[in-house]
Amino acid sequence: MTPAAVPMVFVIDDDALVRTAIQGMLKSVGLRSEIFASPQDFLRSKRPDAPSCLVLDVRLPGVNGLDFQRELSDAGI
Amino acid sequence: MSDPFLWTRSHGVRKYAIAVLSVITALLLSQWPVLHLSAAPVSLFFCAVMLSAWFGGLGPGFLATVLSSFVFYYYFLPPMHTFVAKPGEIPRLIIFAVSALVIGALSAAQRSATESLRVARNDLLETVQKLQKTNEALQAESHERKHAEEKLRRSEAYLAEGQRLSHTGSWAWDVASGEIVHWSQEHCRLFGFDPEEGPGSLEKLRQRIHPDDRDRVLEIWDRAIREGNAYTADFRVVVPGEAMKYIRGEGHPIFDSGELVQFLGTSIDVTERKHAEEEREKLRQAQDDLAHVSRVTTMGELSASLAHEIKQPIAAAVTDANTCLRWLTRDQPDLQEAREAALRVVKDATRASEIVSRVRLLFQKGPSPRELVDMNEIIREMIALLRNETMRHSITISTELGKDLPRAMGDRVQLQQVMMNLMMNSIEAMKETDGTRELIIKSHAAENGHVMVSVSDTGVGLPSQQTGEIFSAFFTTKLHGTGMGLSISRSILESHEGRLWAAGNSPRGAIFSFTLPTQVEARE
User: Fold this and answer.
1) Chain A residues with CB inside 8 Å of B344's CB?
2) What ipTM was estimated for this complex?
């Protein structure tokens, strides 16, 4: 399995403790993850073209999580 | 002296010349036919004798008598113009001579008497002049003394008035006799004694001291006397029928060649000051209570955010603990991963505990001790506490905190409250606005050793008409505001010798700034 094919979980949470906890938990069940402090950071990052999912907090600095999800689907990501 | 009869007496030969001349003159006059005196010349010679005795004294008087007797014998006793024996005329000659002698003696005596009278009068005059001078000197001295007394009296009156106005009495106490030697009028009044009666006894004074203070004051006195040291004693004075007085007594030892002789002192009525202090203390207490209530109210408003803030690390801890268990319960336990997860649990729990302590501190009542506080630390703590609140309202916080900020002396909780109030106001002001919601907190070292902190927002801004009123108690533009936040913040800063003010932000919003001194110790 090429690295690109490995499923990837993206975690966006402004709280460092929470996002590292989630990342650690995902690792213990065998999932790769990448963590971001804000949606802006996430958008700026280079995302691998692989099956992936996004763990998103509802309350995020500057923007609402649900609104952001809507923005993402509108942008076709 | 103008009186020719009182010419001074002639001396030596001159007075005898007067005698000779006067007898010759009398002879010539008696021989002058125009006067027809040749028949009765006696009076002329008596005059000559009288004059001689008057101006010359007894000697010349006697000479004039002898000369006159010879002339009388030669010229006027028959046979005339001869010294031959004239036995029938001898009785006349003797009568003449004796009469002339008597007249001369009388005249000389008279002159003597007049002379001594004159001397006596001169002496008297001199004495009177001396007396006059003495009198004048005495008068001048008396005037001077009166002037000095007047000055002294006035100065005493000023002193008494000054003592009365300042409620300060003065006293002096003699160590050897144990007697009070001076009590000012005000001192009498302070202890409820009649100012006219002067120093009372020490025992009477003791009786006026509040029974609870008496022993303590007496001990201070005894020690001061024993050790010869100055002392200060605060005590209460109870005068029957009067309100209780608070007195501050001070005494200083007076030494005379190394030996303690007296104590000089003052008693000051500090009742008003005491009451003012009590009032101030009550006011401070009330302000503290109000600040506490306001703090608790604000924390109540924040409870949802605070709960989230505490739940967040707890949730992380739960997740990390589960992860740890999962690594351990695998078929092949991964101890390295489990250890890392466990370390994260410790970190999460520590943060949760920190937040709880911080919140609990804000709920605490009463003033916390003044300490050196780092405003940047307080700013960071309050940002952490209000993070959730800002996020809820999509507000971004940015900070520009000055490096090496001098620390300020203050009440940490109260300063946190100020930061919390200002930030909550900004959040409140931006809740309903469109566009950027940005909270910027800056800190830097200002001039005169002050620290300056500013909190700016992009909210609705200050009410244009009532900028001056925003710091008044109960003034609020919020729906559920108490109107106490800014008022309390300002009094907290003022009690720290600091200042709080507001200005408009551009293009919109408000900037609240405050300064805190770092050099001087803040007022209690």
Assistant:
1) 17, 20-21, 24
2) 0.84
